[in-house]
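Subject: Sanity check before I submit

Could someone independently write out the structure tokens for this chain? I want to compare against mine line by line before I put it in a report. The sequence has 381 residues.
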Amino acid sequence: MVDLVERAEALVPLLRETAREAEVNRKPLDRVIDTIRDSGLFSLMVPKQYGGHEADLDTFFDVVLTLSRADASMGWITGFYIEHNLWLFNYPEDVCANVLDGNDHVLAPAALNIGGGQATKVDGGYRLNGQWQWGTGIVHGTWVLAGGLVMEGERPVPTFFLMPKSDVEPIDTWQVTGMCATGSWDFKIDDLFVPDAHVLPFQQFLDVTSGIAERFSGPLYKTPLMPVLGFAAGLPILGAAQMVLAEFSSQMREKIEKNVLRAGASQPDVSGVIGEAALKIETAELVFRDVLADVMAKRNTATNAERAHWLSRMAYAAFSCKEAVLRVSEETGASGGFLSNPIQRAVRDISIATNHVVFAKASRYGDVGKAMLGQTTASRV
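---
Independent answer below. Compare away.
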């Protein structure tokens, strides 16, 4: 069997080398996307019958974490490209075959801000309009998944629409402080007809009720969507935090060695800061891995309360990484302000990544509190 984690490890030098260039570029570098494509990682979650690896969540976990230690932005976009292929296979098989067109993967953004679009039912499909933010993957994408609201009577139903990238207008709005290299532009759609076969209620993705679990036998295809999304967003944060810990330790060892050679120079004692950060980040990884084991054990048999708890724990782990990295950044000195310093980039990347809706602190922590009070969570996850 192909070792996809080894393939990810082989990409690490390239991602480290190009991280700053991609950040300045404000989008992934073409040559990096091409190299990742050649590695076969994009087809990690694609069923074997379509030429993919049909690897499970544990492989996805270690692949994304490995890449993210080198460059959080590229870990982020690669992880989302991979798991958006899982979204694709919720659609009917003839749609999947047409979209893949003989390839073993598709590159597609999936805009989760469902309020960005509105659709009206017409004969044979829907007319879709809207503008979506956070189009991670739109720069190199070939297809697009866009969420929109469909009115059923007076009730708005969150729905996902699948269309070629040629049917949408990418808009470069990506002027941000962190995760710059993801190139997560807006995209716009004006009165586009989307056929019925390319339209699915979002709840079917969440509940694994689209028929995907029946069409494909692998355990991956019985996995609810939200924890997969949580890992895709959370592992770049963990990877960046681990990189900061290693980089800061290396930088401080170098400073200490220089000071030892200079008569009378004081040696900064940052051992306590490093130790505390290490423990926070180690705990965060343990939390992520414990959630991973529980997701793989329960899949779509998990209750809504259990699914909500998965996301709450991932949010807690993500914010623990943020706390550790911010504390470390306070000790980097003036050199920590240089944009070329990997620690500076990680501080900005993590600050943006933890703002992802999947980590909304009030609702995620509130779900834990509601469970302790015997109350139900607000929505299905």
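---
OP: Matches mine. For the report I'm noting this point. DSSP finds twelve helices and eight strands in the chain.
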